[in-house]
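4.2 Preliminary Data

To establish feasibility before requesting continued support, the project team ran the inverse folding procedure on a target of 59 residues. The structure was first converted into the token representation described in Section 3, and no sequence information of any kind was made available to the design step. The complete token record follows.
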């Protein structure tokens, strides 16, 4: 999934997505399986979109 797949107005805040990323790493014990890696990559893209949205709204 490309970063352009996420439009402005992300449903979740960057903080919420960050918490989910942290929980994923905790559950995985610091080593991600292939499925967890795919989930992580999607979460990072979502987090980046949420951060961009925060910056746009702050401007």
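Position-by-position output of the design step:
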């Amino acid at each position: 999934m490309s970063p352009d797949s996420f439009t402005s107005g992300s449903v979740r805040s960057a903080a919420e997505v960050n918490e989910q990323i942290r929980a994923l790493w905790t559950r995985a014990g610091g080593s991600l399986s292939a499925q967890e890696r795919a989930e992580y990559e999607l979460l990072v893209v979502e987090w980046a979109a949420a951060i961009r949205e925060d910056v746009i709204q702050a401007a």
